[in-house]
């Protein structure tokens, strides 16, 4: 089949094991109606008090969009507080990936054309670049890894009408946020060693050294930053597509989607030599019953668009 020929399988069996990573998190009682139990992602053996702070412009953008008082002008004012983020957002917005009919030179016009959700995502993506205390080869790989997965997730979600493409962008952007956290908090050397690989062995090594693996740390960080529960669940299960106990159809589809796009950066050569994968064999693709040929066509199409826009994202 074309799908199997396009990405020949070099996949570790650990990456397609649905049983991997079923984490036994404790529960806390909510104070809301019925005192329903709500899973928390905080009960892990990792010091969450020293998490990097979400950049101010990103937090302000999220807060404004979630308020009843949001407008293009107010959003533009918030984003313009950080000239570096503003410039990066405009550069990405004008790339061929977003198919702008004309060059946009102001944030307010970009917001009107792209919409608030897209602007929020571009601000978060641009802000993530600044979360690193330094920006060496490892940080560059993590940044490219996050952005390529975000863009691929948005593209595939839109083409297949699976989930909200903008939410898919965020899910792809944050699925390795735990690795970013580790790289900023004394875990740099191990992250440098493990950043190119993700298997049961590497997750176990992270847990042995840090008390939790990057998926657990990422889910906890997103919860601390008050981002959606869906994003935490996707981050927790991006490599194993573990769906035990998850009933919401949108969450299930999002986890499965990111399980597929999780490997796109490695296939594009972010970590060195481009790797080959049998995407159709992934549990996410099987759960969604995706046709291998169609998936291969989409990834080829995405790669062409991405290559044409790459300078806008990484230069």
Explain what the structure shows.
Residues 1-38 have low confidence and may be disordered. The chain has 17 helices and 2 strands. α9 runs antiparallel to α10 and α9 crosses α12 (214-224). β1 and β2 (37-39) form a beta hairpin. The chain is mainly alpha-helical and 315 residues long. The protein has helices at 2-6, 56-66, 72-79, 83-93, 107-114, 116-128, 137-160, 165-174, 177-184, 188-194, 200-210, 214-224, 229-237, 249-261, 264-267, 283-288, 292-314, and strands at 27-29, 37-39. It has a two-stranded antiparallel sheet with strand order 1-2.
Tags for this entry?
two-stranded antiparallel ribbon, disordered N terminus, 17 helices, mainly alpha, 2 strands, 315 residues
Helix content: 55-70%
Order of helices and strands: HEEHHHHHHHHHHHHHHHH
Distance between the termini: 37 Å
User: Which radius of gyration do the C-alpha atoms yield?
Assistant: 19 Å
The main sheet orders its strands as 1-2
Query: Globular, elongated, flat, extended or rod-shaped: what is the shape?
Result: globular
* Structural class by helix and strand composition: mainly alpha
Q: What does the average pLDDT come to?
A: 80
Helix and strand topology:
Layout: H1 2-6, E1 27-29, E2 37-39, H2 56-66, H3 72-79, H4 83-93, H5 107-114, H6 116-128, H7 137-160, H8 165-174, H9 177-184, H10 188-194, H11 200-210, H12 214-224, H13 229-237, H14 249-261, H15 264-267, H16 283-288, H17 292-314
Antiparallel strand pairs: 1-2
Helix pairs in contact: 2-3, 2-6, 3-5, 4-6, 5-6, 6-8, 7-8, 7-9, 7-17, 8-13, 9-10, 9-12, 12-13, 13-14
């Amino acid at each position: 089949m074309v799908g199997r020929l396009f990405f020949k399988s070099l996949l570790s069996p650990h990456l397609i094991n649905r049983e991997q990573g079923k984490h036994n998190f404790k529960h806390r009682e909510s104070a809301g109606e019925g005192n329903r139990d709500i899973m928390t992602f905080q009960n892990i053996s990792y010091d969450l008090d020293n998490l990097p702070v979400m950049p101010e412009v990103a937090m302000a953008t999220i807060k404004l969009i979630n308020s009843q008082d949001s407008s293009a002008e107010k959003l533009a004012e918030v984003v313009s507080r950080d000239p570096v983020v503003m410039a990066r957002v405009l550069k990405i917005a004008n790339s061929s990936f977003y198919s702008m009919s004309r060059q946009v030179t102001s944030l307010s016009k970009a917001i009107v054309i792209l919409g608030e959700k897209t602007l929020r995502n571009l601000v978060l993506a641009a802000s993530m670049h600044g979360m690193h205390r330094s920006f060496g080869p490892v940080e560059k790989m993590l940044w490219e890894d996050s952005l390529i997965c975000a863009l691929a997730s948005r593209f595939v979600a839109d083409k297949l009408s699976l989930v909200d493409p903008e939410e898919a962008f965020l899910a792809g952007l944050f699925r390795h946020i735990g690795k970013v956290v580790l790289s900023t908090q004394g875990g740099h050397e191990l992250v440098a060693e493990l950043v190119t690989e993700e298997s049961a062995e590497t997750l176990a090594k992270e847990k042995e050294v840090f008390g939790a693996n990057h998926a657990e740390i990422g889910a906890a960080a997103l919860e601390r930053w008050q981002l959606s529960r869906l994003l935490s669940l996707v981050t927790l299960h991006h490599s194993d597509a573990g769906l035990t106990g998850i009933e919401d159809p949108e969450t299930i589809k999002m986890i499965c989607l990111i399980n597929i796009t999780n490997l796109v950066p490695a296939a594009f050569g972010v970590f060195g030599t481009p790797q080959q994968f049998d995407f159709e064999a992934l549990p996410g693709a099987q759960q969604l019953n995706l046709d291998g040929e169609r998936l291969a066509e989409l990834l080829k199409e995405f790669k062409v668009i991405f290559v044409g826009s790459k300078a806008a994202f990484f230069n």
